[in-house]
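note to self — DONT lose this again. spent like an hour looking for the file last time. sequence + predicted structure for the chain T wanted, 252 res
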Amino acid sequence: MKRILVGIKRVVDANVRVRLKPDGSGIITDGVKMSINPFDEIAVEEALRIRERGGAEEVIAVSIGSADAQQQLRTVLAMGADRAILVDTGAATEALEPLAAAGILLKLVEREQPMLVILGKQAIDDDNSQTGQILAALWDRPQATFASKIELQAGSARVTREVDAGLETIEVDLPAVLTTDLRLNEPRYVKLPDIVKGKKKPLEVLPVAQLGVATAPRTRVVRFDPPPQRHKGVILKDAQELIAALHAKGLV
């Protein structure tokens, strides 16, 4: 069975202006629109395209977090995924560190035996960009991160990666872990009939305790602070005024 396992994370919608709690203990999520992490949505779209080209037979969506993440999994099922698994931790996903998330994904990989695991390159809430790399290490399989193009061949994947110097093309043996970048594709629009179909597809809920993975945090967030307010810009008449202003600030 050629399966693709896709991980998604429930995050505050990218168009929402994030507000901090008055005590600095976190961000306000009550009444805030939650969505699929944008990079994960790209991962789902790529998995579906691979299946539609005949490169896979089944796409399984996985999320880790509270029961609320079922809403995002149903969206993925409406996009076209065949089935979904929610690993219920009883808490928001952002409370889970990358090592714990990778450990949970490894248990599902061992159970489902996918040929590919596709994840977003990072989540927009914590920006860790670690889960895919850690999963590849725990699974002892190749990885190709920051993918902007994926071509499957017999027993391997040719991946174009976005790196600091430009683009890098590598070939990895399958099974492998891939993480997606923004330019890989544009996720499809979900229509109403697809939403109805998605509600009828299987969604399995697994208690995290059943997997035997340690999820206790190894780090502690002390406080959240907003970025400093930006000062107003100053309009200068010419280069001489610019040099004088920079000199006054000790920058030149």
